[in-house]
Structures are given as C-alpha cells and as structure tokens.
Glycosyltransferase family 92 protein
Amino acid sequence: MAVFLRALTLLTLTAIITISWIIVTKQRYNLLPKYVYYQMSNMTTTKGTGSNRIIETAQPFTSFVQDAETCPNLSNVYNVSEIYLAFDNWHTVIDDLLYVYSAHVDPRHKDNSIIRIIGIISRHQLETTSPVYYCQMYFDGSENVSVIESVIYTIGEHRKPKFRMIELACNVSRDPWSLPPMLVSITTQTCAEPNNHLAVRQSYKNGFKTNFTLCLDGVLKHGTTKSSLIVEWIELNMLLGAEHIFVYNLSGSALLDPYLNYYERKGQLTILPWNIPIQFNEDLDEFGHDFHLVWNYAQTTAQNDCLYRNLFVARHLAYLDFDEFIIPQEVDVWNWNDMMEHAKHNCTNRPGSYVARNAFFLTNEINDSNVDEFNLTTALHTTMNDRLKKPGFRSKHILIPEHVRHVNIHYVEEYYDKSYSTCVVLPSVGHLHHYREFTKKGSKHTNLSALKYKPYLIRQIHHVYDEIK
C-alpha cells in the first residue's frame, strides 16, 4: 500500500509539473513581440503575427505642398544648409510622449521611396488616442515644404514598459528629377512650427562597403568597464568576419575611451551617442535595466536604426551583446561566411537571416588549463549547458538587410520580401556562445570550439595594447 501511495504521489507531482510547464510555455509565446500596424489616414488598427501580419499599404499616400500663403511660418524660415544638424542625436517632438532619433531613405519601393523615422513613443498614447503625426520635408534650394501624414509602425516588447519603439514612414516621390529631402521634422499639425529637425540619411548612395557589419545588441552603459572584455569581443568578432562595428553609447565608462577611440581611428568602429532625453528610474533590475520605462534603454530602436543605417551598405548584419559570440562548431570552419554556406544546405527556403540558437557557457566554472595573461572569456569558460534554447528564445542572428523590414531582439520581425525567411543554423554547424553565470541544475559538457581562435586572439590583443600605450 505504501509503495502504491508513493507511486501515486509521484505521478501527481509529475502531472502538476507538466501542466505548469505547458502554461508557462504558452505565456512565453504570448509574450513574443507582436507587430502592430496603424494606418492613420482612416484611423484603423490591425494587429497580427506571422502570416496574419499586415504590411505597408499599397494605397497612395495623401501628399501636398505648403507654401508661404498656406503656411507662412514654414516658408523661408529655414536655410537647409545652415541647419543641417548632426546626424545622430535624440530630438523631442512632444515631451514625455514622442522622441525621434534618426531618419533614413528606404529606396526599395517600386513606385516611391520612403523616409523612415526611428524613435520611441508613449505606449499609453499609442494605444488609447490614435495619434496622427506629419512629416515636414525640407529640400535644399526650395522654399516649399512638403508635408505628408505618416504611417506608424511599432514593435511589441516584453513587460509593457512606458515607451516602445516607433517608426514613422513617409512617402517621397520617385520622380527621377527629384532628390530626397535633406531634413525632416515631425509635427502633430500640418503647419505647426517644428521643434525638431532630423538630417535624412541616404546611406545606400555609395554602395556596399562591407560583407559583414556587427551591431552591438543593446547599448554601452556604465556597468561595462573591463577593457579586456571589450577588446576580446571586438577582435574575435573581426576574426569571425565583422569588418565594421556599431556601438550605441548611453553611459560608457571613460576607462574604455582609449580602446574605443583606437578602433574608431582605424575606421573599424562607429560610436553613436544614445542620450535618450528621459529620466531613468533608480528602481533597476539585476542587470541594471529600467524595464518599467523603456525596454533595455530602447534596444529595439537602436537595432532598427542600425538596420537602416546599413541598408545596401552591409551585405550581412549581425547583432550581438558583449557576452555573446556566434561560433562555428565544425573544426574546419573558421568564420561566419563559411558557417552560413554550410547552414544553407539544411534550409529549403531562401534565407533572409540566419538564426544561431543560444547555448549558455558557465562563467562560474573555470577551465584552469586555459588560463592566459588576458583571462580570455572564450578560453576560461568552456563548460556548456546541454540545453540549447529554441529559435526565437535568446537566439541571435545574422541577417541580410535588403530583405528585412524590421528586426527584433532575437529574430527578424518582418521581411520586406515575403519570399525570404529564417534559416535556423544547425547546432552542429554553429550556435551562440552566451557567457554568463548559470546555477540551474542540468547536464553540461566541455565545448572547446572557441579555443581555435585563442593563439590569434592573444597575438592581436598584444598588438592592440602595444598600440594604445
């Protein structure tokens, strides 16, 4: 009888654990960011994910030109050449409601170009008031200002913070005799005098510059101070294929300046200011994030800015944080390019991005046999948790910018061309090495795939430190 009761108790506990796991998993899937589409001209809202997602309308935008008689406060007030402000800066449209960072020309549309303005918006305003915003476009040498109502795009984020990423899209004529605007301002009324001016980027004009460009997936903030970690991250990613790196600097330590400036002088690094004009709370989580205000310091905004900044500039774009590397697992494969060639053989679709599944490497366990003078993260920590996360959960990716409309933290949010989709890299070909303290129980093993880079890394880091002295 006692044996029967113990067996019954065990079965009951197993059932409870299984049901709990199903509920938690379902909740996690429900938390996946949802793509929200707002067509403001008719004030309708449609939401959806996957194949149900609604993309940019094919209907023509309503456009008109304001002149001195209609909007006297916009005519002859600005000399575009004189107010051609620095490209990269945050601007307030409406305090505590809408802030914008950058404007980019998207030339991929057949009949017209699109100006895409990247920023953050109050979640409450977006979801309750159906806001309308206009693009006032200023052309060099013209007294007229073209004014057009924007289409609003936004990407859902976890935990529902106060602010979320926004993109305002405005149509520009594809008249071969016309040039894109040099400046754009965002207003709530057609003739309102603007309090913001964004220089319009035309990054694509000079053609492709790199095969692989890397965007820091997140922002550089005060908690990152160890120069050896930054140098290892930069040098290993360049060994893997990165030719240029973009870093968004919120509050990086001055201790890192000599190293970041070194790579910037060499033309291998672009440091972008990320001075978001909002006051962060002191109530931060264990990683120093104020998730109640904005997700990871507007991470998805930085991601999509980096996407459009590299449209037709980089053939491939990787997104990685400082504790992450996408490492080929096959002995004879050393870089991303070869890894992706191998990955293609297992993908029947047309790859618009390559997703590397997440594997945790335990920083609380040290491989003493690999200690070196720089204490390389990738050499010291070779114990890997056996459980790889599913694609879309903590995964990171390398994408082809020209095929992508919007990007999210762990996957492509929307492809521009629906004939392209995601290619999941087999773990035997390559996966994400994610270095962090990991105390959960579970099986683990030693993975030495990153050690093949160690001799080259040590030599290159020596060179960097000698150059900076």
Summary: Helices lie at 2-30, 123-128, 227-240, 257-265, 299-309, 336-344, 377-380, 454-468. The first helix runs from residue 2 to 30. Confidence is low (pLDDT under 50) at residues 21-69. The radius of gyration is 24 Å.
